[in-house]
Fold:
Amino acid sequence: MKVLLFTPSYKRPYMLRQCILNIKNQSYTNFTHSISIMYDDESEDILDDRFIIQYKKNSSTHTNAMSTALQDPHPYDVYIKIDDDDIHKKDYIKTIVEYFKTNTCDILTSKIGYQLNNYFLSKGVYKSLGGHFPDNNFLMPQTYAFNHKAFQVLRKIKDDNNFEDLQWRNAWSIHGLKDDNVDNSQNIIWHIHGKNISVGSWFRPQ
Structure:
């Protein structure tokens, strides 16, 4: 399978560096990682030929994500959103790819059982797609992956500046795409979507 990882990043160079190093350590290595830095400082020379990078003016979350994924115009079998503030164990990408190989779905997500950062922990169960929205429905699932058919739907969205996952869920539901959940909880080390706007005083790298 051809796999594209895409990561838009805004004003979080420390997190982005950790994200890139983490992706380089994944057990599944046959991927391209598209990165857009929204007017951040340039990262260190830690990229190899699987990584492509661009600098873009910051926009809405949907536009940022799409410009990052479209940086490589080739069609891919699987698109995986990699947030710059998440750290995964080495089999994260492998788990997603194997699920797509053995199951029929267009969008693959995972339930959020917790949010985790240095100082904050909250518990809850959040469903990812298709009308099962929690009270905190802006939260994205730990896993967000989809096939080329789902990606083509995203390309046709008229951006309304809402959170990208809410726009994506709505568009996919309208087109009747099939979603499924994978248990990727054991592959997540760092997950801080609850504090996802910028690095504030709560974040203190050790």
